[in-house]
Design a protein that fits this description.
about 100 residues, alpha+beta, Double Stranded RNA Binding Domain, 3 helices, globular, Putative RNase H-like HicB family nuclease, TTHA1013/TTHA0281-like
Length: about 100
């Protein structure tokens, strides 16, 4: 069974997409297209999980508050640069073995 996480996707004033996963801080991808940003985030999450496993760590527990804080932070960043205040949450599936 796959492990499910929430991703946060935002498009900045210059048209670039940033994708993050609140449960795995520091896993970030930026790209010119939405699909490239999501693909990059999935690669970043795989690297995050690999490094965390070597340190004996796991992703944060995903809660509504954790996701809401990430969305609020993305909106603040967009407002600061004068970009439209549009943030999307996306469902991410990772192989369960990768997360274990």
């Amino acid at each position: 069974m796959a492990a499910r996480y929430t991703g946060v996707l935002a498009r900045d004033a210059e048209g670039w997409y940033t994708a993050t996963c609140p449960a795995m801080p520091g896993a970030v991808a930026e790209a010119a297209s939405r699909d490239e940003a999501i693909d990059g985030l999935l690669r970043a999450l795989a690297a995050w999980l690999d490094a965390a496993a070597r340190r004996g760590e796991r992703p944060r527990d995903e809660t509504p508050e954790l996701v809401a804080d990430a969305v609020a932070g993305a909106l603040r960043d967009l407002a600061a640069e004068g970009a439209p205040l549009v943030v999307e949450t996306i469902a991410l599936s990772l192989p369960a073995a990768q997360v274990a």
